[in-house]
């Protein structure tokens, strides 16, 4: 294990924004993790666990502590319907691995950037699937008990873009592997309208690999597939969560836009609530594709993706974020929540 100093974090995030980490270490094994934590404890350093850097917005001041770059990789091990996967495995590579073997359950999660270790933390989801539907168990280091533990799906307390890892027990666990339960007899998921339309003219039902490729093509068309060199890819993907609100929240929106409540797009959510498309709210408030504010902007292909137009700093993205959040709050009485995580020294 080698501890590095003053490593630029901009090179480790898809936003390509961020100052240096005081200390930085590649975590290749669970023993590396224990050694790095001992180093941090001896120096009384705050730590931050870095995965693929695709859901991250780093301040220009960087991180005055130790960055643990999770890079534990290895063979995907199968035990019947269970698949044990190291946390440093590329997420899309795992989805492709399964789809090439005709196994459905994750095909709609194709093309999502990042690593396996980050998938249960955010409960990643897209096109009708969430990772919580297939998580069987998560192995993690418990920073309080100072031991490795296994957390079941119920233990993880999954909700929309949430788990105990990023809510009640934030910074409590460090994920080192995940086990997924997949049904070999399951059929590909075509619940999302874009996918149904994509395969509408096909005579035979698509395979898992066919859906995988379709999802990647759809994501690319929306600027939501990381392709080196494309400006729209200097981004953290969807910057805002789709707000979950009570039905009464439709009233102020309808009044502000002079439209009927019935015309507002919405989706069912737990406990009688509804989920509103954040992209639609941004469009209605005037934040369209290709909108720009200095060096920050909105993707030319997807309204929810804030982008670094070339030389953006943290303040540029933060300024655009505040303009959007403030406008949506003032016009529609809806408070948007940011998806990307921001490392804060001392956390």
UniProtKB/TrEMBL annotation:
Keywords, alphabetical: Cell cycle, Cell division, Cell shape, Cell wall biogenesis/degradation, Cytoplasm, FAD, Flavoprotein, NADP, Oxidoreductase, Peptidoglycan synthesis
GO CC terms, sorted: cytosol
Database matches in Pfam families: FAD_binding_4, MurB_C
E.C. designation(s): 1.3.1.98
GO biological process, one term: peptidoglycan biosynthetic process
Active site: 161, 238, 339
Any one GO MF annotation of this record: FAD binding
Subcellular location, record wording: Cytoplasm
UniProt pathway annotation: Cell wall biogenesis; peptidoglycan biosynthesis
InterPro entries: FAD-bd_PCMH, FAD-bd_PCMH-like_sf, FAD-bd_PCMH_sub1, FAD-bd_PCMH_sub2, MurB, MurB_C, MurB_C_sf, Oxid_FAD_bind_N
PROSITE patterns: FAD_PCMH (PS51387)
FAD-binding PCMH-type domain ranges (all copies): 16-185
Record's function text: Cell wall formation.
Stated family: Belongs to the MurB family.
Cross-referenced HAMAP family: MurB
Stored PANTHER family: UDP-N-ACETYLENOLPYRUVOYLGLUCOSAMINE REDUCTASE
Record-given protein name: UDP-N-acetylenolpyruvoylglucosamine reductase
């Amino acid at each position: 294990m080698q501890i590095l100093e003053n490593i630029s974090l901009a090179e480790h995030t898809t936003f390509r924004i961020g100052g240096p980490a005081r200390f930085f270490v590649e975590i290749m094994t669970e023993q590396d993790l224990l050694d790095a934590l001992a180093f941090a404890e001896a120096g009384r350093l705050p730590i931050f666990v870095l995965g693929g850097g695709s859901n991250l917005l780093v301040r220009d001041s960087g991180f005055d502590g130790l960055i643990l770059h999770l890079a534990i990789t290895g063979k995907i091990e199968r035990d019947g319907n269970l698949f044990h996967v190291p946390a440093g495995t590329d997420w899309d590579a795992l989805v492709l691995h399964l789809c090439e073997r005709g196994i459905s359950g994750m095909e709609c999660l194709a093309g999502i950037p990042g690593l396996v270790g980050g998938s249960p933390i955010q409960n990643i989801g897209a096109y009708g699937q969430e990772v919580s539907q297939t998580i069987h168990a998560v192995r993690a280091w418990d920073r309080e008990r100072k031991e490795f533990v296994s957390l079941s799906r119920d233990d993880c307390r999954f909700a929309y873009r949430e788990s105990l890892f990023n809510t009640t027990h934030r910074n409590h666990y460090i994920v080192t592997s995940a086990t997924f339960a997949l049904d070999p007899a399951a059929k590909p998921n075509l619940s999302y309208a874009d996918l149904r339309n994509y395969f509408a003219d096909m005579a035979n039902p698509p395979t898992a690999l066919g859906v995988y490729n379709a999802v990647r093509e759809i994501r690319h068309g929306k600027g939501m597939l990381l392709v080196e060199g494309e400006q729209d890819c200097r981004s953290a993907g969807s910057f805002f969560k789709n707000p979950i609100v009570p039905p009464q929240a439709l009233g102020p929106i309808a009044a502000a836009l002079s439209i009927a409540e019935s015309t507002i797009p919405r989706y069912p959510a737990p406990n009688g609530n509804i989920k509103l498309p954040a992209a639609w709210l941004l469009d209605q408030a005037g934040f369209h594709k290709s909108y720009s504010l200095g060096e920050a902007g909105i993707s030319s292909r997807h309204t929810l993706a804030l982008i670094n137009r070339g030389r953006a700093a943290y303040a540029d993205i933060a300024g655009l974020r505040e303009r959007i959040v403030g406008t949506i709050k003032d016009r529609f009485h809806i408070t948007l929540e940011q998806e990307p995580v921001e490392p804060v020294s001392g956390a």
